[in-house]
Amino acid sequence: MEIMPFEPSMAADVARCYSEVAASAPYCAPVGGEWFADLGKLARQPCTEEALIVAQARGEIAGFVHVGVSAPATEEWQITGEPGVIRFLAHRPGERPIGAALLKSAEEWLVARGRSVLVAVDNRFLYPFYYLPFGHLSERHAHLVALFGMAGYSSDESELLLEWPAFEPPQVERPDVDVDLIWGEDKHGSLGPEISLHVVQHGREVGECLMAQLSWEGWRPELSGMCFCSSLNVDPSLQGKGLGKYLLAQGLAKMHELGFRHAMISTDWNNYRAQLLYTNIGYRFLDRTFSFRKVLGEAGESDG
Asked: What is the pLDDT of residue 19?
């Protein structure tokens, strides 16, 4: 095995390696080498510096790690503090020495750039074509999840992903709450075009339901016909009255009217209230995803 810097001539082989590893998670279509020929095309939250490090074994690219230094946060949803970033790590199951060597090389690269806080496989840095844009690393890549854990990384965020294929909008009566409902539209949502339903009481917004289109203008055809509830919230003073369930039902009905037939939603792994709402209304568990964090000096070194 040899660890080496990425060169543009390796782009097709790196794409093959990525596609092979990613295939075990749902909605992960193969990609071509053009994505890796220009690292800037892979950004969601940008990095000030980034690099690919590859592992060669048996005469082929057997794995790679994509590292970077986060640019300063400019949006509320971005990670602050300019940590070191591991955007993606790929190697086949059963080849732990390759993964461990890549992870060690990634940490050395980041330490050389003054980073001591490392964030790994967070959806703000993951590839735009990887899985679903609101998830982190799928637990179906169990060998990668385990490798991060053994290398001293702790789970930073964990999301449950739920899906409802061929959904039918549930019939939910409007609760007896004195609020106004206002529909809106945003063609520049962070995930895709959004339909919004805002709840207003006495001139103050007290809730919302945002429904995003996950595939548009031919982008991500594997997600065609799928909508995602990107935000569902109700002011604490109005919770427990059935308003959240009603908003979600209205959002689903609107997307169904627009031609969407598959629905997705996500929530924190320990938000049991939301999980009950979503599963009771019709969603079913799809996956759990993880992002990781490590503070060098507070955790053990990568275990080879």
From this structure: 97
Q: What is the CATH number of domain 2-158+289-295?
A: 3.40.630.30
Task: Assess whether pLDDT exceeds 60 at residue 208.
Answer: yes
Query: CA 275: distance to chain centroid?
Result: 18
Percent of all residues in the chain with a pLDDT value above 70, rounded to a whole number: 96
Q: Domain 180-260 belongs to what architecture?
A: 3-Layer(aba) Sandwich (3.40)
**What are the residue ranges spanned by the domains of the chain?**
2-158+289-295, 180-260
Position 230 scores a pLDDT of: 92
Q: What pLDDT sits at residue 43?
A: 65
- Quote the pLDDT of residue 302: 43
Q: Report the phi/psi class of residue 48: left, alpha or beta, with left for phi > 0 and alpha for psi in -120 to 50.
A: alpha
pLDDT at residue number 75: 85
